[in-house]
């Protein structure tokens, strides 16, 4: 999460040196950062956030693959692979998602200016997001795409962790009513539905096919970027 700051500082430092050394300016950009993987045809960005109390093992596999298992029924984590920056694209993924308790399988990402955390939820465990009164969520519409109706919801997060540190920001949700694990997600249709519902997105930060667990246990094995399996 501190990565953009580090890169900015690096660029400032490097632009300050003249001539020949300036040619080296863009080299650091080509070097894989600690939490990204460069692979064959396409490189995938990998992200793993843990609130510090979740007992979770994330395995960043080759290409678009990852596995995650978690236990202990406490804490919150978000793990997965995708792109940085994210944006409109057809996201293909396949795999398994087997939670006990509260968990989400989503195309998950952030924008800045404004700061927004968004979820395109493909499947979930015991809790349908935005469904309890304590969520204080508001429905803004529906969108039918990729074989299902998705419900568009929003809610506010006050003083919560974000890619810009602790902040207050909205979450946008597009929640598939006919749950699935595997398929193609046309993110642009969800982004359009957010906009149609008056939910304004900003500049895209990362976007991953994420497994999130909250006070639960389970396993997931996901491959991003390949056609859905037929099984
Ligand atoms: C994840 O699975 C491995 C292998 O079964 C196990 O050894 C480990 O304890 C598990 N970790 C968590 C956090 O559940
Ligand atoms: C996982 O959580 C469920 C309750 O949601 C519990 O019944 C089960 O024993 C837990 N399993 C493990 C391995 O922690
Ligand atoms: C979305 O669709 C549901 C039925 O699935 C309907 O009850 C609801 O009124 C719709 N909401 C909006 C805002 O269009
Ligand atoms: C996504 O899956 C479809 C159907 O299998 C395939 O036609 C398409 O090429 C895949 N796209 C990517 C980016 O893998």
TrEMBL record:
The active site is formed by 117 (nucleophile), 212 (proton donor)
Pathway listed for it is:
Glycan degradation; xylan degradation
Keyword entries, A-Z: Carbohydrate metabolism, Glycosidase, Hydrolase, Polysaccharide degradation, Signal, Xylan degradation
SUPFAM superfamilies attached to this UniProt entry: Concanavalin A-like lectins/glucanases
Keyword Hydrolase belongs to the record: yes
What catalytic reaction does the record list?
A: Endohydrolysis of (1->4)-beta-D-xylosidic linkages in xylans
Describe the location of the GH11 domain by residue ranges: 32-225
Keyword Transcription applies? no
Protein origin, superkingdom: Eukaryota
Q: Name one Pfam family in it.
A: Glyco_hydro_11
Q: Which PROSITE patterns match?
A: GH11_1, GH11_3
Leader sequence range is 1-22
Q: Which enzyme type, at the first EC level?
A: hydrolase
Q: InterPro entries in the record, alphabetically?
A: ConA-like_dom_sf (IPR013320), GH11/12 (IPR013319), GH11_AS_1 (IPR018208), GH11_dom (IPR033123), Glyco_hydro_11 (IPR001137)
EC annotation?
Answer: 3.2.1.8
Q: Report the sequence similarity comment from the record.
A: Belongs to the glycosyl hydrolase 11 (cellulase G) family.
> Know the name of this protein?
Endo-1,4-beta-xylanase
Species source reads: Sporothrix stenoceras
Q: What is the lineage of its organism?
A: Eukaryota, Fungi, Dikarya, Ascomycota, Pezizomycotina
